[in-house]
């Protein structure tokens, strides 16, 4: 029982981060119908930006995260600006463009920060909470809380604000949205910026849990992408559920299947996607590709 | 991804076509007067590039010194760097290239997998290779042209098991290792050393090299309340395991090979969590001896960064090669291999004395991590 609960805690903590990564994938996809393959690298840049500001300038961690979000949101805007001429012209080139940006960001990180990477000291000093032998690291609680708060804010933005509604409209039908006077390009830029901001949030939160280096985005990107597909690509609640399910799947497979855990995780994932190709919360409306 | 594999395949085909008969006949006699050509093959790009760059700096330091001191009996050494990208496929292409271009010897690579892939080609071309890999599989090849500049995992783990079980009397030992090339080697070697002492590990968890969350594995280990947790993984993953183990309240002493002696491990785990970790390594720290202190100062002056084991062993390997070249008067092939085997050198990592399998160092030292730095364990 103890092992089960401890595994659960590990799974939920990483699941919360996967959910943030998955939401970043989904918000770009639902608005533009584009899979942003540079997303994993943006997560990495976010982790670097936050940890560098946090460690070098002694900023409080929360401020460092906000700075990192601003930096990566800017990168998101730049990527979108580069891709805009291709919008509705050559979709494949846009996809390849995002892959290219991923490679550029990774190479850039090696140039700026070096290939070795650095460890980030935990911003929460207190030790883990002990509940009947189950140890819950305080930092994990913080990660889950911040992820939940970010999700709530994003939901509010999408449903309650005019800009958010405009983005939803573009997601549903970009031609109709143009017809009623919504600037599709601006909406896309917004999606890219929010996606990158979410990536930065995920990156900064996971920095102290892992080790920040230029290649860390690879695995996080793949797992976040898989989580988004699992939940239903383009769906925001889907991204959250997908992230958590993927985190739990990952951690329980690690406990029960040892070195075959990755194989089992992705096999289960493949089976779920075969049975439900649209994912758990698949929406037909965002199928623009 | 598909594009890269295409280009690799294309490059491989071109390399194959370019040197279909590996030109070994011309390699040894073609240049008896010009500079002596030595190839340094290491990852200069990709995930393992930091390792490759350290190795190259160590090699270059030794060669530059030798050249300044007059080279090999008056001839200068020409050191050429090849990027293996840490990829065995690219490694084999490089092996064909250097065997056709008149290189007398090769230094590197830092990855056992790449060296293993290159070894058969270098053996056919009679090019001696001093590698920085430390997988027991390298010694198992029994190639007369392959030499290691460090002990294999077997030696690391035998020393560790001797210290933990024989000297300290610790019997409740749990294992956690990854199933990559390095982790699997560590796992097998340490398990064999425990078996020979009639100790059965209380837990034996295997993880994947990419895994980040070890809650499930460590919770299972915690149930056994081990005295020692053996960690068989690379620097970062070892650090993550140590950190999460302490978060789970595991009290066991951490023990493992060279990765646990690095600052990457200590900072990833957190200095407090890494405290007291038992490390088995031939190179414990930059101030373990007077020779090492002098070397570390020299290295710092040349590159403005701190020396480390990877640098030291690359330096040792290059120094051994230079010594052997002086004996053969720059000649390569079988003669050079025999000369390397004959070199007895008190190096930075220990006393080199090569056996038939190409292993030169047969013991490691035990150190303990204090404040993120390894200090030699004096008690044993």
Automatic annotation (TrEMBL), chain A:
Location(s), subcellular: Cell membrane
GO MF, one example: transmembrane transporter activity
Membrane-topology annotation of the record: Multi-pass membrane protein
InterPro entries assigned to the protein according to its UniProt record, in alphabetical order: ABC_transp_permease, BCAA_transport_permease
UniProt keyword annotations, A-Z: Amino-acid transport, Cell membrane, Membrane, Transmembrane, Transmembrane helix, Transport
Broad class of where this protein is predominantly found: membrane
CC annotations in GO: plasma membrane
Transmembrane segments: 6-27, 34-55, 61-79, 91-116, 136-158, 191-212, 224-248, 260-281
Entry annotated with the keyword Nucleus: no
The keyword Zinc is assigned to this record: no
Any one of the GO BP annotations: amino acid transport
Homology family: Belongs to the binding-protein-dependent transport system permease family. LivHM subfamily.
Protein name: Branched-chain amino acid ABC transporter permease
Automatic annotation (TrEMBL), chain B:
Keyword Signal included in the entry's annotation: yes
Keyword terms: Amino-acid transport, Signal, Transport
Top-level taxonomic group: Bacteria
Region forming the signal peptide: 1-20
Transmembrane segments: none
GO BP terms in the entry: amino acid transport
Annotated InterPro entries: Leu-bd (IPR028081), Leu_Ile_Val-bd (IPR000709), Peripla_BP_I (IPR028082)
rRNA processing among keywords: no
Residue stretches making up the Leucine-binding protein domain: 35-371
UniProt-listed PANTHER family: AMINO ACID BINDING PROTEIN (PTHR47151:SF2), LEU/ILE/VAL-BINDING ABC TRANSPORTER SUBUNIT (PTHR47151)
Similarity remark: Belongs to the leucine-binding protein family.
Protein name: Leucine-binding protein domain-containing protein
């Amino acid at each position: 029982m103890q092992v089960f609960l401890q595994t659960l805690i590990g799974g939920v903590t990483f699941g919360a981060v996967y959910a943030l990564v998955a939401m970043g994938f989904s918000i770009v996809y639902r608005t533009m119908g584009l899979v942003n393959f540079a997303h994993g690298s943006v997560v990495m840049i976010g982790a670097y930006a936050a940890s560098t500001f946090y460690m070098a300038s002694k900023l409080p961690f929360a401020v460092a995260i906000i700075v990192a979000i601003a930096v990566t949101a800017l990168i998101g805007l730049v990527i979108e600006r580069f891709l805009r001429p291709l919008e509705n012209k050559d979709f494949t080139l846009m996809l390849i463009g995002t892959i290219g940006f991923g490679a550029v960001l990774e190479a850039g990180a090696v140039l700026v920060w070096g290939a070795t990477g650095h460890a980030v000291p935990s911003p929460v000093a207190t030790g883990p909470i002990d509940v009947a032998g189950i140890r819950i690291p305080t930092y994990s609680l913080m990660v889950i809380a911040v992820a939940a708060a970010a999700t709530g804010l994003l939901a509010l933005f999408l449903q309650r604000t005019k800009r958010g509604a405009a983005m939803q409209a573009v997601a549903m039908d970009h031609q109709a949205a143009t017809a009623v006077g919504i600037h599709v390009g601006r909406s896309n830029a917004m999606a890219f910026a929010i996606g990158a901001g979410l990536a930065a949030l995920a990156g900064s939160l996971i920095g102290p849990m892992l080790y920040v280096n230029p290649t860390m985005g690879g695995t996080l990107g793949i797992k976040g992408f898989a989580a988004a597909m699992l939940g239903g690509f383009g769906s925001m609640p889907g991204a959250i559920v997908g992230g958590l399910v993927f985190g739990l799947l990952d951690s329980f497979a690690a406990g029960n299947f040892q070195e075959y855990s990755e194989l089992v995780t992705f096999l289960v994932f493949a089976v779920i996607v075969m049975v439900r190709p649209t994912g758990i919360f698949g929406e037909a409306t965002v199928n623009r590709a | 991804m598909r594009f890269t594999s295409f280009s690799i395949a294309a490059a491989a085909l071109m390399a194959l076509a370019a040197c279909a008969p590996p030109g070994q006949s011309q390699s040894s006699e073609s240049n008896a007067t010009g500079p002596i050509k030595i190839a340094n093959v290491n990852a200069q790009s990709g995930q393992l590039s930091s390792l490759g760059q350290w190795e190259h700096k160590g090699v270059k330091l030794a060669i530059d010194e030798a050249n300044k001191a007059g080279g090999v009996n008056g001839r200068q050494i020409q050191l050429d760097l090849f990027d293996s990208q840490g990829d065995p496929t690219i490694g084999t292409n490089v092996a064909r290239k250097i065997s056709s271009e008149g290189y007398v010897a090769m230094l590197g690579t830092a990855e056992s997998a790449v060296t293993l892939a290159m070894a058969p080609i270098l053996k056919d071309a009679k090019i001696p290779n001093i590698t920085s890999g430390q997988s027991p599989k390298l010694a198992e090849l029994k190639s007369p042209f392959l030499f290691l500049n460090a002990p294999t995992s077997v030696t690391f783990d035998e020393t560790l098991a001797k210290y933990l079980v024989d000297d300290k009397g610790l019997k409740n030992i749990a294992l956690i290792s990854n199933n990559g090339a390095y982790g699997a080697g560590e796992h097998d070697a340490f398990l064999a050393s425990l078996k020979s002492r009639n100790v059965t590990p209380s837990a034996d968890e295997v993880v994947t090299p990419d895994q980040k969350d070890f809650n499930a594995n460590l919770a299972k280990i915690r149930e056994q309340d081990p005295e020692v947790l053996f960690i068989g993984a690379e620097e970062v993953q070892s650090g993550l395991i140590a950190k999460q183990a302490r978060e789970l309240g595991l009290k066991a002493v951490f023990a493992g090979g060279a990765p646990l002696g690095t600052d990457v491990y200590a900072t990833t785990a957190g200095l407090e969590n890494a405290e007291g970790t038992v490390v088995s390594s031939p190179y414990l720290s930059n101030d373990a001896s007077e020779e090492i202190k002098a070397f570390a100062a020299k290295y710092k002056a040349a590159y403005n960064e701190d020396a480390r084991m990877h640098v030291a062993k690359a330096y040792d390997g290059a120094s051994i090669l230079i010594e052997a070249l002086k004996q053969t008067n720059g000649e390569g092939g079988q003669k050079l291999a025999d000369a390397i085997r004959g070199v007895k050198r008190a190096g930075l990592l220990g006393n080199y004395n090569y056996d038939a399998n190409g292993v030169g160092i047969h013991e490691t030292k035990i150190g303990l991590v204090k404040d993120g730095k390894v200090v030699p364990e004096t008690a044993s």
